[in-house]
Amino acid sequence: MRRVSRIAAAGVATAALAVTVSACGSSSTSSSSSESSKKNLGLALAYDVGGKGDQSFNDAATAGLEQADKEFGYKSTAVEPQDNESDADKVQRLESLAKAGYNPVIGVGFAYAPAVKEVAAKYPKTTFGIVDDETIKAANVADLVFHEEQASYLAGVAAAKATKSNVVGFIGGVDVPLIHKFEAGFKQGVEDTKKGVTVKSQYLTETAAEGGFSSPDKGESAADGQIDAGADVLYAAAGLSGQGVIKAANANKVWAIGVDSDQYKQDALKAYKDSILTSAMKNVQGAVFGLAKSVEDGKPETGVVRGSLENGGVSVSNSNPTFADNADIQAAIKKAEEGIKSGTITVKTS
Fold this sequence. Notes:
Layout (H helix, E strand, L loop, with lengths): L1 H23 L3 H10 L4 E5 L10 H16 L4 E3 L7 H14 L1 E7 L4 H10 L5 E4 L9 E6 L1 H15 L4 E8 L2 H17 L4 E8 L10 H13 L4 E5 L4 H10 L3 E6 L15 E7 L1 H13 L6 E5 L6 E3 L4 H4 L2 H16 L8
Parallel strand pairs: 1-2, 1-3, 3-4, 4-5, 5-11, 6-7, 6-8, 8-9, 9-10
Antiparallel strand pairs: 10-12
Helix pairs in contact: 1-4, 3-10, 4-5, 6-7, 6-12, 8-9
């Protein structure tokens, strides 16, 4: 029911914004004129699949929006995705937000790339951001990307140190290049830390439309299979589906490693938190807030803005005392961090 109500709310919001679209017209000329005459309403997020409440990627973006509202007195907005939507649906959503007077407008997820490219050309005075894509080269677009493979390498170090069965698992939401970065870094971290550990890898779906990022039941089923095959540490890069992986890990008394947000601290996962060893985080919150701040300061970020271990854009969490107080794991993590930062360790991306 909650998912249905979110979609329904999104439809109402989109319909309301569409009225603004009709009133303003659709040509580039009228769009630019409209932009210059409107007071900035604040930040706008267009969510990726899974939407708000995924306890991971989208919620990290939400935290950045809330930080901007608090800091700048904005009344920002966020719009949910719809099931099986097209690029045209995304274009309409972004156009509606830009015409309504939001700035910046951020597409949360690589699936927004075609829409951001098209709409940014129509609204040159609005700053657009896209998370997890760096293919758009435009004067008013910031590509907010991360070295996910670096945080995943550290997750692999942790997994190799924590495993007793010498079998660990990786579960990717969708079989796409972005998630390959998580897998590659994790595998390398495991292999560099402890020889003889088997890494089992599995992807839930071939496309996002099949629910790879939004189906906890798929994540739970995959995790159960890997646990049956001997895995005692599971790392999932699967958005909302990762909740099912964490649930299965808890039920079977093995370790899970969270992703994107510090999942040990997430309220929706508190029943399972003692099974979350650590989380491989990327600072989506900071990237979203940073773009909003740059617009507020009159110096909008553009081009590739990349988070790394060096600049604090990616990291692993220390919230679980079992992880934070384990001297062996912490020493290995520190050594790996220093190697990545100095360049003596180059982490693979595929």
